[in-house]
Design brief:
34% of the residues lie in helices and 20% in strands. By secondary structure, the protein is of the alpha/beta class. It has 2 domains: 1-34, no CATH class; 39-338, 3-Layer(aba) Sandwich (Rossmann fold), CATH 3.40.50. The chain is globular.
């Protein structure tokens, strides 16, 4: 019962009245035996256009792996670990971004990490994610794909940002490849505390750490993103972007908690809950995706591949700008903090 109440407080921003409504709703769900998000699939292979899909999503430490069809048997692929937000455990919520990452030649691992919004303890989120990372390497011989064994790149939205922040600081304990790029998108845990660290000073000096917070994120706010940024003092490459809403005539971009959503029903694995249904309603692809989230990660991954850690003025301008509106007017740029300044 407590977990149900916490969950709906986490997703609600409408005050006491909504909390009463959602408490009653959660009680009725529990009493009736209804459980969202527990329909699972057996291990299977499928394709989405030029993407090979390996579905091992049946357990809470399971995963879906996306591989580029053209390269998966011949090339050694970089592995991007893409960790979803709390409850957003259907890959279709982020399908557009996943497809983009695979089109760049990456293998993309989507860990499940929670069985449903009600059943998995937050203390298990990191162990389950680590198990998925180890599992995908363990299956490489069976499916004849080749992953880079030296490093991984991390993307996490919302609670996924909490998880990858933790892994970036503790990966040695887990005996997994070294994180090279960690991209925390709107990181936060709401009233929950599992996987949240007091300090991120243990993050390696060689890690490229990038954080985006939304000025109008009323779900988790900006607090954790700032804490990670201010305490990860060992790395000399850390960036904190502050993204703002903007409008131009009838066009508008938001700066909410939901900007990383990139809904694509082709990536559906048959799981539904409140968070997933909401994502379908609010998700949109715009300048914040193409010139913000997607470009920032792509640029850092490319620079990591080339051994370039410099943060020059040209890079700052490139990554802060969010492109233009349809009439050529610039979209409001993001504010950027660098290396503790």
């Amino acid at each position: 019962m407590q977990l149900i109440v916490i969950y709906f407080c986490y997703i609600s921003k409408f005050g006491f009245f909504m909390r009463v409504i959602t408490f009653i709703f959660g009680f009725l769900l529990l009493a009736s035996g209804v459980s969202f998000g527990q329909r699972t699939t057996q291990p299977s292979n499928d394709t989405i256009d030029q993407i090979l899909v390996l579905n091992h999503y049946a357990e809470e430490d399971g995963f879906v792996l996306y591989l580029p069809l053209e390269n998966c048997e011949d090339d050694t692929l970089d592995l991007v670990v893409f960790v979803h937000g709390f409850g957003a455990l259907n890959p279709k919520v982020y399908g557009g971004w996943i497809e983009h990452l695979v089109s760049k030649g990456n293998a993309v691992l989507f860990p499940r990490y929670q069985m449903s919004i009600f059943t998995t303890s937050t203390s298990d989120f990191v162990p389950n994610t680590v198990a998925a990372i180890k599992g995908v390497y363990g299956l490489s011989a069976q499916y004849n794909y080749h992953l880079n064994m030296d490093y991984i790149d991390l993307i996490g939205h919302s609670y996924g940002g909490v998880i990858i922040g933790n892994i970036a600081a503790t990966y040695r304990v887990h005996d997994i490849p070294t994180p090279r790029v960690a991209f925390l998108c709107e990181p936060g845990s709401g009233p929950l505390t599992g996987a949240v660290l007091d300090s991120y000073q243990a993050i390696d000096k060689d890690l490229m750490l990038i954080i985006i917070v939304g000025d109008e994120d009323h779900t988790v706010g900006q607090k954790l993103g700032v804490i990670v940024y201010e305490t990860a003092v060992q790395t000399d490459h850390r960036m904190l972007f502050w993204q703002f809403a903007d409008e131009n005539g009838d066009e508008r971009i938001e700066a909410s908690h939901y900007e990383p959503y990139a809904f694509d029903s082709r990536f559906d694995v048959g799981i539904e809950n409140f968070t997933i249904k909401r994502a379908e309603k609010v998700s949109m692809l715009n300048q914040v995706d193409y010139h913000g989230y997607w470009q920032i990660f792509d640029t850092h991954q490319e620079r990591a591949n080339n051994g370039n850690r410099m943060i020059e003025a040209e890079l700052i301008e490139q990554l802060s700008n969010l492109g233009t509106w349809s009439d050529g007017t610039p979209v409001k740029a993001m504010e950027l903090r660098l290396n503790g300044k």
